[in-house]
Amino acid sequence: MHLNLDRLQPTPLVQQLTEQLQAWIEQQRLRPGARLPSIRTLAKAQAVSASCVIEAYDRLVASGWLVARHGAGFFVAERKPGQQADAGSAWGEAIDGSWRLFGEGHEALLKLGCGWLPVAWRAEAELAQAVRQVSRGEPEALFDYCPPLGLASLRLQLHKGLARLDINAEPERILTTQGISHALDLLVRTLLAPGDTVLVERPGYYNLFNLLRQHGVRMLEVPRTPTGPDVVELERLLVEHRPRCLFTNSLYQNPTGTSLTPKVAYRLLELAREHDLRIIEDDLYADFQEGPATRLATLDSEQRVIYLGSFSKTLSSSLRVGYVVAEPALIARLAELKMVSGIGTCRFAEQVICQMLANGSYRKSIQRLRVRLGQHMAKLLGQLEAWGWEVLCEPCGGMFVWARSPGRDFAGLERLALEHAVLLTPGSAFDPQGRACDWLRINVAYGQDVRAQAFLRHAGRPPAA
Questions:
Q1: Mind giving me the DSSP string for 151-219?
Q2: Which SUPFAM superfamilies match (predicted)?
Q3: 204, 254, 282, 348: least surrounded by Cβ within 10 Å?
Q4: DSSP state, 463?
Q5: Of the candidates 369, 368, 390, 372, which has an alpha carbon nearest to the alpha carbon of residue 381?
């Protein structure tokens, strides 16, 4: 197999590998059922990490070029006449920077870097009860379209909840969406055009990076520090490039777990005013915080901040309910695009969320999650320190720790993790250009699993000379 990966290209290695594997299958005219090299064999031959090969294979599975057989490997899929495959459509980070975590053949592995909570932690009973109540209610919930702005009763509940955070969000300033990713897509298509320049955090949310690429938007990288975006670098980029928007997390940033400090927040708003910058504040993890916190939308007096929220992480990824808070004129434009592109959102899902907000069951489930996450966070941070790991910061909440084991590269960590039945999410997945990185995102909710404990303990030891 002859592949030519160019490490000087801006195209990430995993994308090059995916495209070249697809071309190789076509050029060799491989028959369905032909077996591809094993993950380890191909990784060694191409001098890439095993995770790079896993990701490339999984993209080709998702786009129909390959099939995965548990315990046997990857094989050329049978393709129907005229069937088209698009490797780009299976872009690996489309879901939370961790598409490979969903791939076939990984079910038995502990996904230590995943972006969701264990099912056992979710409010299963409360959610089931809300579903039953909505199902027995008015038939509109089951059969009617949702209004363009979203369900009025849900937007009223959101208004009340945001007021407790000191965010001014009247119902007419709220638009419901199918989660944060949908909200980001609507905003990118409404506010930006191909060739526009924006600011993104590094490391940051890879699904956002891919979305911006798809729309031809140029990204400028702002390093994420323990106190928030690097405001010195941000100001330099503003002066030199005059970008349109900044995309940022305020609380428990994905993947670093860091949160804005008041000093950084005020400086961000000053710079936004001086340089006519719109800030898109993704507060996906807002409900993991109890008590006061620094949010840009709370401090914003000039409506430069567009605020995003969601219930995907705290309640259910399947319900796909999120929202945007912005000035009414922008909300109207977003609502029009929302209806044109998707005929609105799911009325049933919005009624379920509204039911849980109204009867208090969501609040109680969140309180349990906060306590549990806090306990696991504190315990894991202590263990990482004892085992010699380095962390960027000690998060005060949320579910992510950004850590590395000094002296070890990702390839070595990945091999060790697989020996302990653990699947890692590489730090390169959170880099806008997919560059190699020895930092890892660790989800604390899975940190006390015996497999995670064994891996973290062994990986923290200095590698043998």
A1: -HHHHHHHHHHHHTTT----GGGEEEESHHHHHHHHHHHHH--TT-EEEEEES--HHHHHHHHHTT-EE
A2: PLP-dependent transferases (SSF53383), Winged helix' DNA-binding domain (SSF46785)
A3: 348
A4: P
A5: 390
